[in-house]
Design a protein that fits this description.
Elements: H1 2-8, H2 12-19, H3 23-42, H4 50-60
Length: about 60
Amino acid sequence: MPTRVIDSGRTISEVARELGIDAGMLSVWAKDELRRITAAEVHGDKPLEAAERADVYVREF
């Protein structure tokens, strides 16, 4: 779900409304995912591609 915010450039409110979930929770998830992406880049790792991130979230939920 955070991938919809990160990859689409849409606002958290728009995506949360579309999914019928709390915008605050989606915001936390999106920030966590952005931290993971940044940490991977800082350590010289390649962050997951959009499709890979989406696949991970589908399996978690």
